[in-house]
Fold this protein.
Amino acid sequence: MTSTTATPTMPQTNGATMNSVQTNGAQHVPEHRHIWIITGPAGCGKTTVAEYVAKQLSLPYLEGDSFHPKANIEKMANDIPLNDADRWDWLILLRQQAIAALESGTTGVVLTCSALKRKYRDVIRIASYNNNKVLVHFIYLRAPQDVLLARVHARVGHYMKDSMVKSQLESLEEPREDESDVLSVDVSGSMAEVQRLALSVVNDVMAADAGSA
Ligand SMILES: Nc1ncnc2c1ncn2[C@@H]1O[C@H](COP(=O)(O)OP(=O)(O)OP(=O)(O)O)[C@@H](O)[C@H]1O
Ligand SMILES: O=C(O)[C@H](O)[C@@H](O)[C@H](O)[C@H](O)CO
């Protein structure tokens, strides 16, 4: 896992440059297509970060929570944590949706998904197994429990209450060093700082990928 806590120095990028890379005046279409999964427990800022990154890079954005079956939402709204069985089909659906987005011709897609456990991340990783042009990246939004609690508590009109934060953290398997496709971002800072940091992480990966093509 790569850990990123510093303020980014990468320049802001407008959307147009990310779907193709300018190399010595020639238009170069990048070889890889990227699935950017913004992960972490309830309240870490997945939606806030994903919307920003997708907008800045002109990429499609899929809100993972909107693909949960009604039964899952009802469980969570009733303070009942989801279990593995509740999540498998949802994770597979998210993977399919991300692949479908890439097949529509875009060079990347941004997806929010809690992906709390390693085996859940593995379900998404399968997206690249049969297609070596697809790269899967997880942006793990790391926050201490008190920050999560405060953010979920302050949010109004959402099915997920702060009483669920504890179970989210109990389920959470923080990405380990050997998960080299995970980039970790400290989200304790302000919204603008975190958005900028996450974007810089994505830009760094894109730049490295373009350089290696
Ligand atoms: N860096 C930040 N500083 C302060 N507040 C933030 C920050 N990031 C997000 N928030 C706020 O915290 C709340 C949770 O953020 P957000 O909905 O983006 O998280 P999430 O991970 O998508 O949550 P969930 O999965 O529970 O829907 C929102 O009210 C959001 O406005
Ligand atoms: O796997 C899960 O338990 C869920 O995806 C949750 O993480 C929530 O849907 C989300 O965070 C909303 O608050």
Observations:
- The first helix runs from residue 46 to 57.
- The helical segments are 46-57, 70-77, 84-103, 118-125, 145-154, 165-171, 191-212.
